[in-house]
Amino acid sequence: MDRSGRANIQTIFSYLVLFFLVAALITEGYVAFMLREKLEIQAEELNRISMRLQDLKKERDILKEEFSYYNKAMGENNDGNSP
Length: 83
Known about the structure:
Blueprint: H1 3-77
């Protein structure tokens, strides 16, 4: 094989390596973009869940207060002194 044939093979090999490097870079960028999108969606879902949990805690506290109020009211009326 002469020098020009060897140079052509090396050039083709160099372009092939460059092609695969660019393809890997593009693939990595695409994967990073998809992961970022997925993380944003999960962050939004987590935020909604957190807000719902806070609402449920507030509702629980309100119900506790109401239950305590009625419990006290019933306890005062059922102390044995009422006819």
